[in-house]
Amino acid sequence: MKLKVLIVDDEKFFVEPIKLILQKNGFDVIVAFDGMSGLKAARTQNPDIIMLDLMLPGISGYQVCRLLKFDELYEHIPIIMVSAMDSERDYKLGQQTGADLYITKPVSPDKLIKEINELLGK
Prior knowledge:
This protein has helices at 12-24, 35-45, 61-69, 88-96, 109-119, and strands at 4-8, 28-32, 49-53, 79-83, 101-104. The chain is of the alpha/beta class. The chain starts with a strand and ends with a helix.
């Protein structure tokens, strides 16, 4: 069975190449382009891992992460925060909201696959 990755990001030019890389590496990919859709997809699609942008229309990636990580039905899903914001404050906020990993854009495809596999215990 293929593992499912949920990508929540409002930038199509970022999502499309990442989606192709993940599919080429054997993952099923679900995409949401705003915070509320991402939250709904996480709750209905039960992904194995979530890639979550911070700056999203509607509710932010921080809020989505917090809502999922403080819900016992979804707290087990690893969340990778992906953002262009790379200050110490941003990393700390990511940790405080429960993100399992914080990586900055642009994302190296090889590094991303390696991090996903590590978080999934592969």
